[in-house]
């Protein structure tokens, strides 16, 4: 059975239903680990198909393995799965035994483990995950910025389950409530799209809010040139006071903020939530001309609006 070609989807993996797996391994969900499990393989297979999995895949937080099984059934050649909860490891090992050589389970914290050395050499991996809500945004920001100015990224796509509110921040357009640093950072170098929503009822236990599947695909080139570090500084300062005019919010970066905006050809009275990505990039490009810009503190790792 293990020689099923990866490109051909399988009807069933003949492993026990996920409810049974959870009962057998005593995997009562823990809130502290952001555990909301997906037990319906039809849904997890829909997510894997939406991601168009084909080659290597990195999964964060496989838990009892509902999405992991779907990824393997839908054609992922290799899945590298990082799970922090050691209670889940025996259930994941059973999946690995069903798909010999195709599942690599890494026990530990995804914030501390780099999956790249664990992947077979070859094509860039896709990242597919039902992320734990407590570390989801931090991981997303890391994936967006960790390559620095080198682009495209090491991953070929991100297909991620988020609370709908976070997914909306990623795809938001200027002049909307959800628009912020995360929107600019993501859309500058990636295409972003909400594929579909998932009701709280699909999870065990159900979360309080609706979730969304978000698809992020790197663009070959950023939309407009800018250095990432400068774009991060500008968006951090601008969105720290999102309703203020840019000449006021950017003063924390550059004393002559009016001059900075003039060089960038951006109206000084514009507010952060109305500035588009092209304008943020223009300000980021002008920033190095101002000697006090170097004093600006780098933004915190967690991106907030
Ligand atoms: N993928 C499973 C599913 O869809 O049913 C579980 C998803 S659940 C929302 C999040 C999973 O991430 C849990 O299994 C949890 O133990 C794991 N997790 C939480 N924090 C983690 C971390 N820092 N590193 C790796 N895994 C983590």
Give a nutshell description of this structure:
This protein has 305 residues and is of the alpha/beta class. It folds into two domains: 213 residues, Rossmann fold (3-Layer(aba) Sandwich), CATH 3.40.50; 62 residues, Orthogonal Bundle (Helicase, Ruva Protein, domain 3), CATH 1.10.8.100.
Helicity level, as a percent range? 25-40%
Strand order of the largest sheet: 4-3-2-5-6-9-7
| Rg calculated over all Cα atoms | 21 Å
Bound molecules: S-adenosylmethionine
CATH topology type of the largest domain: Rossmann fold
Broad structural category = alpha/beta
Mean pLDDT comes to: 93
Question: How would you explain this protein's 3D organization?
Answer:
The chain has 305 residues and is of the alpha/beta class. It has helices spanning 18-24, 41-51, 66-73, 89-98, 133-145, 164-171, 181-189, 228-240, 246-249, 257-264, 277-286; strands at residues 37-38, 56-60, 78-83, 103-107, 126-130, 157-163, 190-198, 203-204, 211-218. The chain folds into two domains: 6-218, Vaccinia Virus protein VP39 (Rossmann fold, 3-Layer(aba) Sandwich), CATH 3.40.50.150; 228-289, Helicase, Ruva Protein, domain 3, CATH 1.10.8. It has eleven helices and nine strands. Helix 3 (66-73) links the parallel strand 2 and strand 3 (78-83). The longest helix is centred in the middle third of the chain and has 13 residues, at 133-145. The chain binds S-adenosylmethionine.
């Amino acid at each position: 059975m293990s020689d099923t070609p990866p490109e051909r989807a399988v009807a069933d993996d003949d492993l026990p239903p996920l409810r049974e797996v959870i009962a057998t391994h005593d995997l009562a969900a823990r809130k502290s680990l952001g555990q909301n499990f997906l037990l319906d393989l039809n849904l997890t297979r829909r997510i894997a198909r939406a991601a168009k999995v084909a080659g290597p895949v990195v999964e964060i937080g496989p838990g009892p393995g509902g999405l992991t099984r779907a990824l393997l059934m839908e054609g992922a050649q290799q899945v590298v799965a990082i799970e922090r909860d050691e209670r889940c490891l025996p259930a994941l090992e059973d999946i690995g035994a069903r798909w010999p050589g195709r599942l690599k389970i890494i026990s530990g914290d995804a914030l501390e483990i780099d999956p790249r050395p664990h992947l077979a050499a070859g094509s860039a991996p896709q990242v597919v995950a039902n992320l734990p809500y407590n570390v989801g945004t931090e991981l997303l920001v890391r994936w967006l910025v960790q390559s620095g100015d080198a682009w495209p990224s090491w991953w070929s796509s991100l297909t991620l389950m988020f609370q709908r509110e976070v997914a909306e921040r990623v795809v938001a357009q200027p002049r909307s409530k959800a628009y912020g640093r995360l929107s600019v950072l993501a859309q500058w170098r990636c295409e972003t799209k909400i594929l579909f929503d998932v009701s709280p009822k699909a999870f065990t236990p159900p979360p309080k809010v609706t979730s969304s599947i978000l698809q992020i695909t790197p663009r070959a080139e950023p939309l407009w040139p800018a250095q990432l570090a400068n774009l991060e500084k500008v968006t951090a300062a601008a969105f720290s006071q999102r309703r203020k005019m840019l000449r006021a919010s950017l003063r924390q970066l550059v004393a002559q903020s009016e001059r900075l905006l003039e060089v960038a050809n951006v109206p000084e009275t514009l507010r952060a939530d109305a500035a588009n990505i092209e304008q943020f990039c223009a300000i980021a490009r002008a920033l190095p001309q101002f000697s006090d810009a170097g004093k600006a503190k780098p933004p915190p790792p967690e991106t907030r609006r």
